[in-house]
Specification:
By secondary structure, this protein is mainly α. About 80% of the residues lie in helices and about 0% in strands. The chain contains seven helices and no strands. The longest helix has about 35 residues.
C-alpha cells in the first residue's frame, strides 16, 4: 500500500492534480470581468510554479500574484485579447485567399507570444514591451518547448471537440480541468527554459 503514502508519486500526483483544478477554478472566477483575464493567467502561472515547487498555499499564492501582476498583465491582455478577436473574425468571416498567408503569420505570432508571455510576466520584472519581446524571443529560440505546449493545448481542444460531438457529459470534467491544468503541464517546460535566468 506504499502508493497511498503521502510521499508516494501517486499521492503527490493526485495532490498536484487537485491543486491544478483549484487553480483553474480560481482563474475562471477572477476572469469573469474579462478585463482581468491577463492578471488571472499570470497568477495561474505563478501559482502553478510555486505549487510544483512546494512553496506555500495555492490560494494565497494565486491572489498575491494576481494583485502584483494586475496592472502590467492587464495591459498585456489589452494586446492579446483584441488581437485574438480580430484573428477569429478574420478566420471566420474574411474568407479571402490573398489574406491567408497574413492570417497564418499573425496567428503563429499570437500563439507563440501567448504561450510564453504570462509566465514571463509572473516571474520577471520588466516593462510590458520588454515582456512581449522576450516572449517572442523565448518562443522562437525554445521552439521545441513551444511546440510541446501548443501540442498539449491542441490535444485538450481536440478532447473538447470530441466530447462536444460524441460524449457531451464529458464537457463538465474538461471544463473543471481547464486551462489551469494545462498551465501546470506547461510549467516544467517553462521552468527548464527560464532556470538559467533566475537567481
Amino acid at each position: 500500500m506504499n502508493f497511498l503514502s503521502p510521499d508516494s508519486g501517486f499521492m503527490r500526483g493526485l495532490s498536484d492534480a487537485i491543486d491544478a483544478i483549484w487553480i483553474n477554478l480560481l482563474m475562471v472566477v477572477t476572469s469573469l470581468p474579462l478585463v482581468t483575464v491577463g492578471a488571472a493567467l499570470a497568477a495561474g502561472h505563478d501559482a502553478a510554479r510555486r505549487m510544483l515547487e512546494g512553496q506555500g498555499n495555492v490560494t494565497a499564492n494565486y491572489f498575491r500574484a494576481f494583485k502584483a501582476n494586475f496592472a502590467k498583465a492587464t495591459l498585456i491582455w489589452l494586446v492579446f485579447g483584441p488581437t485574438l478577436a480580430v484573428l477569429v473574425f478574420s478566420w471566420v468571416v474574411l474568407q479571402i485567399p490573398l489574406l491567408l498567408i497574413v492570417k497564418f503569420a499573425f496567428s503563429i505570432v499570437w500563439i507563440i507570444g501567448f504561450e510564453w508571455v504570462w509566465a514571463l510576466q509572473a516571474r520577471f520584472e520588466n516593462s510590458v514591451g520588454r515582456t512581449l519581446l522576450n516572449a517572442m524571443v523565448f518562443g522562437v529560440v525554445g521552439w521545441i518547448r513551444t511546440l510541446a505546449m501548443v501540442a498539449m493545448d491542441l490535444c485538450y481542444l481536440a478532447l473538447v471537440a470530441a466530447s462536444w460531438f460524441y460524449m457531451p457529459q464529458g464537457l463538465f470534467l474538461l471544463a473543471i480541468l481547464g486551462y489551469g491544468t494545462l498551465i501546470t503541464l506547461h510549467t516544467p517546460l517553462l521552468n527548464g527554459a527560464l532556470a538559467r535566468y533566475v537567481s
